Amino acid sequence: MDESVKQTMPKNMIDANTLAKTRKQLDTAIISAWQTVKTNRRPPALTPTRWVWRLAGFYHLCHSTPRLMEEAKKRFASANRQTLAEWAGQKAREEAGHDQLALLDIKSMGYQSEAVVEVLFPPAAKSLLNYFTRSVQDLDPIECVGYSYTAERLGICIGEGYIQSVERLLPPGIRATRCLRAHSAMSTEVEHVKETVEMIAGLTEEECDRVAKACYQAALLRFSPPQEAYISDQEIEQILQPLKLDANHR
């Protein structure tokens, strides 16, 4: 399709072949990252203690997203890239409050949630956040589109079965999967992925290529094990022990 025609077409008029080609390009980049990593290292088995560790990572990523997407919106708008500015603004609104879900989950696990996220910042989450921040603050922040697509695309691979498997690991009566559900196939993430593909399909070929490369980089971070050893449950428990809530405050 001629680029000048493509850029002026409303997103709902972009043909199905272009949408399919765009989605395949983005997903192929993510799969390529998975194949590149090819590690035999596996994270420790999920336990209630390690779930709190993961929730802290969810919090840090969710907490920063609205602010960074608002910054991306301003940068896109100043460059007169209105489609991208509108997309970033929508992402900022969609993600608002998701950090509070993580805090509620941590509290449900029996800990002082605000204190927990002060002391726990998993390296994997930190690496992702650093990449996201650099992408937004680049002269051209378009790589944040690839970061966002990768996060949501991998999120919709999480179904009800996996969520229930997490819930079975937790103490009886504990509800601590709110944040996970909000970023799974059981939420509006499926629609968000579709909308982002539609937006990207309307970009130039060069922009699409940059987004795909960003998908690859973000996926590499998601799939790569930490350079250091995985933190043990015992180490996490030592950090969490002073932060336990009494039964009346859960």
Q: Helicity level, as a percent range?
A: 55-70%
Overall structural domain count: 1
Tell me how many strands there are.
0
Q: Estimate the global geometry from the Cα principal axes.
A: globular
Would you give the CATH topology? Heme Oxygenase, Chain A
Broad CATH class: Mainly Alpha
- The chain-level structural class is mainly alpha
CATH architecture type: Up-down Bundle
Number of helices: 13
Mean pLDDT: 93
> What is the percentage of strand-forming residues?
under 5%
Note poorly predicted spans.
1-11
Summarize the main sheet.
none
In CATH, the homologous superfamily goes by the name Heme oxygenase-like
- Terminus-to-terminus distance: 57 Å
Write the layout of secondary structure elements.
Elements: H1 3-8, H2 16-37, H3 48-78, H4 82-95, H5 98-108, H6 113-119, H7 123-137, H8 143-155, H9 160-169, H10 178-182, H11 189-201, H12 205-223, H13 233-240
Q: Keyphrases for this structure?
A:
disordered N terminus; Heme Oxygenase, Chain A; 13 helices; 250 residues; mainly alpha
Q: Summarize this, please?
A:
This protein has 250 residues and is an all-alpha fold.
Q: What can you see in these coordinates?
A:
By secondary structure, this protein is mostly helical. The protein has one domain: Heme Oxygenase, Chain A (Up-down Bundle). It is 70% helix and 0% strand. The chain contains 13 helices and no strands. The radius of gyration is 19 Å and the shape is globular. The protein starts with a helix and ends in a 10-residue tail after the last helix. The N terminus is likely disordered.
